[in-house]
Amino acid sequence: MTGSHTIEKEACFHCGDDCLTNAHIIEDKHFCCQGCKSVYQVLSAGNLCNYYVFNDHPGATRARSDKRFDYLSDPTIIADLIDFTDKEITIVTFYIPHIHCSSCLWLLEKLNNINSAIHYCRVDFLKKQLNIRFDNQQLSLQQLVELLYDIGYEPLISLQDVIKKQNEAGKDNLVQKIAVAGFCFGNVMLISFPEYFGLSIYEQTFKHFFGWINLLFALPVIFYSGSSYFVSAWQNLRNKVLNIDFPLALGIAVLFGRTLFEVITNSGAGFTDTLCGLVFFLLVGKFVQKKTYHHISFERDYRSFFPVAVHVVENEVEKPVPLSQLHTGNRMVIRHSEIIPADAILLKGEALIDFSFVTGEAVPVNKTLGEIVYAGGRQTGEAIELEVIKPVSQSYLTQLWNNEAFTRKQDNRMQTFNERVSKYFTIVLLLIAFASLFFWMSTDLRRGFAAFTAVLIVACPCALALSTPFTMSAALSIFDRNLFYLKNTKVVEQMAAIDTIVLDKTGTITSSEGKSVHLEAALTAGQEQLIYSACISSMHPLSRMICQYLGNIQRLPVAEYRETAGKGITATIDRHHLRIGNAQFVLGHQNETIHFTRVHLMIDDVFLGYFAFEHHYRDGMEKIAALETDYPLLLLSGDQNHEQHELIRFFKSPENMRFDQSPQHKLDFIQSLQNDGKKVMMIGDGLNDSGALKQSDLGIAVTDNVNNFSPGSDAILDGASFHKLPSFLRFSKDTVTIIHLSFLISLTYNLIGLSYAVTGNLSPLTAAILMPVSTVTIISFTSIATHFMAKRRNLL
Question: How many CB atoms lie within 10 A of CB 404?
Answer without folding.
Answer: 10
